[in-house]
């Protein structure tokens, strides 16, 4: 059994040195072949690393691991919370893909309390970079210089990074162009109060907060050139200022404690429904008055007004008839009778001539029948031109 293990080249190595990290501050631990006493043999991608918590299958929630093809190394990064125990042990298993040699490394981590934690923070999202780009200390220094030289000069003594994560890890989408950066979400904090320049910048970008994330080059601010010259393209829709908070992790832990307190006091804060007698009663008298009585009252007034108008108009017509002289009325009646007679005669003339059979069948005995006095006039003979002799 021991011989087989030696052939497989399984070697257990426990590290003697430990890594010291500070609460509420981002740490970056580089995992390289030197940690396992290995050297490159031509292929930089021949080593694979698998970190985890000692005797656990995965890392703690506040520690992230990323392997960088650019640096050919792995990186452990994160922010230790304030309420965590002072010592953490990580185990890193390394594999040589060429020789299939495996090595085991235990990495002790000591968590040191931050003496002067940050009270104010600036939340940023950088679109043109990946998380591995922020492992470069020179780039972090350039970002700090933008604030200490221009926007937040009072933070020069103690400005540090309080949060670092990939935008894709936090739910953002991958860029359509693979050559573009995935995006980095970062926070920098200090004990100094926020400067008027930062407050003015936040007011400038505040209308963009209704957008979850802005497209690239969607908005250019007054300090856009300052960040672009340093190599940072910011998403201004995510720009935030956080006042009076020790760190992002402290805020997260306090939120978790509040949730636990709410769950523990759930029974005490349980809502009791009111009784039926305590339910307020509503009177529908006003609704009834406005809905039914008011329209009926208006309709009654309109009907009375219309009745008065019609009555007065009828009285006016009767008065006019009484004032008219009698001879004018008789003259008008005579003209009306003559007109009626002429209209009746014209209608009778237009009726077609009935045959004797039709006439005999009709009710001629009726005194009111119009067929009794009807006579059909025969048509005149056709006109024939007389013939004259030519000698005449």
From TrEMBL:
It comes from the Eukaryota. The keyword Membrane applies. Residues 353-392 are annotated as: Disordered. One of its GO terms (cellular component) is sarcoglycan complex. GO terms for molecular function: calcium ion binding. InterPro entries: Cadherin-like_sf, Sarcoglycan_alpha/epsilon, Sarcoglycan_C, Sarcoglycan_N. Keywords: Membrane, Signal, Transmembrane, Transmembrane helix. The chain crosses the membrane at residues 288-312. Residues 23-109 form the Sarcoglycan alpha/epsilon N-terminal domain. Residues 118-242 form the Sarcoglycan alpha/epsilon second domain. Coiled coil: none annotated. Residues 1-18 form the signal peptide. Residues 357-371 have a biased composition (Polar residues). This is Epsilon-sarcoglycan. It comes from Ignelater luminosus (Cucubano).
């Amino acid at each position: 059994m021991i011989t087989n293990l030696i052939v497989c080249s399984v070697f257990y190595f426990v590290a003697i040195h430990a890594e010291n990290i500070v609460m509420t501050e981002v740490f970056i631990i580089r995992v390289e072949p030197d940690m396992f006493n290995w050297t490159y043999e031509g292929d930089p991608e021949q080593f694979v690393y698998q970190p985890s918590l000692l005797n656990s299958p995965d890392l703690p929630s506040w520690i992230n691991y990323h392997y960088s093809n650019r640096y050919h190394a792995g990186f452990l990064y994160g922010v230790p919370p304030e309420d965590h125990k002072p010592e953490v042990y990580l185990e890193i298993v390394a594999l040589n893909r060429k020789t299939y040699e495996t090595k085991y490394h235990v990495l002790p981590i000591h968590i040191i309390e931050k003496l002067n934690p940050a009270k104010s923070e600036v939340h940023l999202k950088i679109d043109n970079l990946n998380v591995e780009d922020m492992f470069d200390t020179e780039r972090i220094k350039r970002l700090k210089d933008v604030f200490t030289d221009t926007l937040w000069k009072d933070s020069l003594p103690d400005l540090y990074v309080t949060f670092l994560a990939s935008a894709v890890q936090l739910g953002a989408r991958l860029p359509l162009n693979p050559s573009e950066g995935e995006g980095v979400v970062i926070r920098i904090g200090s004990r100094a109060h926020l400067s008027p320049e930062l407050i003015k910048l936040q007011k400038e970008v505040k209308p963009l907060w209704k957008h979850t994330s802005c497209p690239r080059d969607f908005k250019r601010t007054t300090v856009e050139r300052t960040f672009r010259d340093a190599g940072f393209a910011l998403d201004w829709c995510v720009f935030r200022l956080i006042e009076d908070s020790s760190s992002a992790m402290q805020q997260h832990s306090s939120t978790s404690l509040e949730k636990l307190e709410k769950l523990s006091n759930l029974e005490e804060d349980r809502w009791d429904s009111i009784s039926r007698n305590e339910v307020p009663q509503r009177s529908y008298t006003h609704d009834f008055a406005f809905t039914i009585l008011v329209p009926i009252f208006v309709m009654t007034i309109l009907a009375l007004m219309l009745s008065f108008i019609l009555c007065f108009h009828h009285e006016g017509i009767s008065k006019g008839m009484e004032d008219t002289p009698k001879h004018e009325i008789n003259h008008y009646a005579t003209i009306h009778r003559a007109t009626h007679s002429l209209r009746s005669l014209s209608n009778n003339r237009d009726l077609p001539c009935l045959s004797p059979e039709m006439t005999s069948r009709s009710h001629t005995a009726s005194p009111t029948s119009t067929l009794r006095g009807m006579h059909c006039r025969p048509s005149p003979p056709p006109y024939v031109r007389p013939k004259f002799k030519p000698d005449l």
